[in-house]
Amino acid sequence: MRSSExxxxxxxxxxxxxxxxxxxxxxxxxxxxxxxxxxxxDGLAETxxxxxxxxxxDPAVAFPGLLDLLRARSVPAVVVSPRRDTEAVVEVFRAxxxxxxxxxxxxxxxxxxxxxATLGHTYLSPAACDALREGAxxxxxxxxxxxxLRALLSPREQQIMELLSTxxxxxxxxxxxxxxxxxVRNNLSNIYAKLDARSGTDxxxxxxxxxxxxxx
Length: 216
What we know:
Layout: E1 7-13, E2 31-37, E3 51-55, H1 59-73, E4 77-81, H2 86-94, E5 98-101, H3 107-118, H4 126-140, H5 144-151, H6 155-164, H7 170-177, H8 181-195, H9 200-207
Parallel strand pairs: 1-2, 1-3, 3-4, 4-5
């Protein structure tokens, strides 16, 4: 990737100082330039950032204000936070943003999350995935509706949903399952219809049982 093609990333810290000086490295192959912004985030309206990274202690406090701005500008976002509970992860994921739990974070993961966000994928770190799945597991024990919903999908569609719920995109899912990207996208269209989902994020939330099902 040429330097001119590398991403511009806005670093936003609710603590006013970006804490991770090890990222991005000067020779990062994906991130070419960063813009540092402090609350109340007014400066983001003028940035040309490809993706916004929010570092905060509590997304429930820091993320809503940023979300309003993101909706106006249609810029993807990734949240980095020490919180790893299901409620925090689901609320950020439901808004379409990626989530990296602080204990998982490393320079390579940060860069991968930036690229995924610009490609329309919702990147979750391992601990964030675990939080999402743990919430789903607890709900599944008593939620017959979710079990019936999953039964609507074929074995192949269930494989695809398992991979989609880890943050992979159609191309990566195809590589894992040895399918063409077009075949995966066709399967995803069928899955969305069966789950009554409007998007990949919506489908994952329904698949994991962390959002209400409109119909079964």
